[in-house]
């Protein structure tokens, strides 16, 4: 066998083993396109986050999930704030802007709050599936003990929810209220620009923000 052919065969076998090793080592590793949102930067940062999220949805970004070889479209909204608030990741399905997971990575205890099943998780993270089957507004509002029109979407409320969703062991009522805040501020604001403008105007004014009964009707349709 010529030396060049032997070298080519050897390299091919080596690369095959290398690919197998990397796949086994990366099981469960997920890399979604990230969109950063610093709540403290006001309405400009908020509108920019929504614009980037809509752009990702329009271009139908394909993300390879290594552990099951499926191709799905998600975005990772990396939410930060002030006052030493933890960073929270909201995983958004780009086809309908639904949030399927909240997670806190890089804290002493990495953990995941799942709202939908079948979404690959980060490695070394504790999965919390208590909210599976409770992602609807009625179910979350019952756990939050709060109507949708009473959810404060102002900057201070959003920062409070960062702590509620980013610290392991927070009670379910506070977690549900935090989920409602970010679902409305991300999912519904991406779908309905009037809701986005309403929240952004509240950030400019430094005031509390509440959706109206009419807007809740749009959200439920």
Automatic annotation (TrEMBL):
Protein name: Ribosome inactivating protein
GO MF annotation, one: rRNA N-glycosylase activity
Gene3D superfamilies the record matches: Ricin (A subunit), domain 1
Biological processes per GO annotation: negative regulation of translation
Gene source species: Streptomyces turgidiscabies (strain Car8)
One Pfam family here: RIP
């Amino acid at each position: 066998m010529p030396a060049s052919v032997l070298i080519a065969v050897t390299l091919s076998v080596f690369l095959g083993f290398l690919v197998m090793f990397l796949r086994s080592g990366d099981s469960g590793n997920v890399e979604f396109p990230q969109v950063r949102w610093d709540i403290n930067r006001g309405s400009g940062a908020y509108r920019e986050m929504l614009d980037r999220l809509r752009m990702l949805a329009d271009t139908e970004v394909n993300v390879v999930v290594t552990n099951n070889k499926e191709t799905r479209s998600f975005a990772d909204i990396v939410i930060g704030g002030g006052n030493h608030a933890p960073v929270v990741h909201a995983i958004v399905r780009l086809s309908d802007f639904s949030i399927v997971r909240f997670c806190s990575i890089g804290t002493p205890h990495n953990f995941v709050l799942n709202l939908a099943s079948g979404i690959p998780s980060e490695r070394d993270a504790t999965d919390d599936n208590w909210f599976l089957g409770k992602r609807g507004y009625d179910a979350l509002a019952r756990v939050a003990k709060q109507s949708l029109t009473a959810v404060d979407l102002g900057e201070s409320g959003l920062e409070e929810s960062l702590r509620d969703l980013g610290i392991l062991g927070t009670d379910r009522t506070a977690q549900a209220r935090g989920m409602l805040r970010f679902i409305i501020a991300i999912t519904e604001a991406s779908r309905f620009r009037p809701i986005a403008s309403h929240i952004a105007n509240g950030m400019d004014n430094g005031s509390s923000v509440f959706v109206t009964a009419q807007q809740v009707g749009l959200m439920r349709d």
